[in-house]
Specification:
Number of domains: 2
Order of helices and strands: HHHEEEEHHHHHHHHHHH
Helix content: 40-55%
CATH architecture of the largest domain: Orthogonal Bundle
Structural class: alpha+beta
Radius of gyration: 26 Å
Number of strands: 4
Number of helices: 14
Largest sheet: 4 strands, antiparallel
CATH topology of the largest domain: MetI-like fold
CATH class of the largest domain: Mainly Alpha
Strand order of the largest sheet: 1-2-3-4
Length: 368
């Protein structure tokens, strides 16, 4: 592009961001993950609590295009399997029955569900021929015979949304308290700063554990979900508040702020209409980098059994099954939710790095 001077700041930031390949990859991965979370009922072949008693701790099933004789089949299929118990280790062992196969079908019928609790249907993205549901598990099953792939998709809706909602509350508190502390100064600034210092001096994990353990066990799953979200948010705003305060301290004597004050503008209008927009790019970047911390916080609490609890399905709740090393050795596919957490955190960090470089005009990125 030849004439960059005619482009708006937003357009220049987009051009810099688009040149950041890792950030674009991170954004694409997150888009896929959130689409999976939004349409998890339709994409999942089973509901999260549906049990297959013939496949307890079954390993991931192989989806094939070639049969045992090497013949290619246009439609993918899975073989049936037989179950036996190893007399030495007492472990379940599954062997494919090459004489029986079941074809996979798109938009097939399966377990009934309500999409977002609004539209009842039994259509799933991928189904299997009648009689083959017992042998179709992409990522295996758990100790109750529940499909791991379906539960991971349902868990993504909770884990990914708790990051967004938690960061939203964190941004609200950090911008509000940090902004007015920096703009007004004096007593307000001292009160906010002392509050920040007290909160930052307390170890986060023990504090989260204590507050989460205090949540009533009789609370409904949705109430517990919002309780954990609020707990994570109440102690995540301090860093952002200090950053906003420092920026507002430097800006409150700028000409445009003084002019707005002399014209009689209210403090709230000056803060949110005039000062905050000049800090928006940094806030967006901070929010993007804070989402992984929220997801990891929920995962840690749920993994320890003091965050979200069954029947809620989240990645942290699913990882509770992998606390025993013997379980990991015998059923390593139960660690799949951990892989989704790692991918999500890396994708958010890559996206945050790209947004930071795009928003910083001195980052060295060149739009062309």
């Amino acid at each position: 592009m030849s004439n960059l001077e005619d482009l708006s700041p937003a357009r220049l930031a987009w051009l810099r961001f688009r040149r950041h390949r890792l950030a674009m990859i991170g954004a694409g991965v997150l888009a896929v993950l959130y689409l999976l979370a939004i349409f998890c009922e339709f994409i999942s072949p089973y509901t999260p609590e549906q049990r297959n008693t013939r496949a307890i701790n079954a390993p991931p099933m192989n989806v094939r295009f070639f049969d045992a004789e090497g013949e290619f089949h246009l439609r993918p299929f899975v073989y049936a399997y037989t179950l036996s118990v190893n007399p030495d280790t007492w472990m379940r062992e599954y062997q494919e029955d090459l004489s029986t196969r079941f074809e996979l079908r798109f938009f097939g019928r399966g377990e009934s569900y309500e999409f977002w609790g609004l539209m009842p249907t039994d259509r799933h993205l991928v189904g299997v021929d009648p009689g083959g549901a017992a042998y179709f598990h992409w990522l295996g099953t758990d100790s109750l015979g529940r499909d791991v792939f379906s539960r991971v998709l349902y868990g993504s809706r909770v884990s990914l949304s708790i990051g967004i909602i938690g960061v939203g509350l964190t941004l609200f508190l950090g911008v509000l308290l940090g902004g007015f502390a920096g703009y007004l100064g004096g007593v307000v600034d001292n009160a906010v700063q002392r509050c920040v210092e007290v909160l930052q001096s307390i170890p986060s994990l023990p504090l989260w554990m204590g507050l989460s353990a205090a949540l009533p066990a009789a609370w409904s799953p949705i109430t517990t979900y919002f309780g954990v979200t609020i707990i994570l948010s109440l102690f995540g705003w301090t860093t952002l508040a200090r950053q906003v305060r420092g920026r507002f301290l430097a800006m409150r004597e700028e000409d445009f702020v003084v002019a707005a004050r002399l014209m009689g503008a209210r403090d709230t209008r000056i803060v949110f209409r005039h000062m905050l927009p000049s800090f928006t790019s940094h806030i967006i970047t901070t929010a993007t980098l804070a989402v992984p911390a929220m997801i990891l916080g929920e995962t840690a609490l749920s993994f320890l059994g003091i965050g979200l609890r069954p029947p809620v399905v989240s990645w942290g709740v699913l990882l509770q099954q992998a606390q025993n090393y013997q379980v990991i050795v015998m059923t390593p596919w139960l660690l799949v939710p951990g892989a989704f957490i790692v991918i999500t955190v890396i994708a958010f960090n890559l996206l945050g790095d790209g947004l930071r470089d795009a928003a910083d005009p001195y980052s060295g990125g060149k739009a062309s």
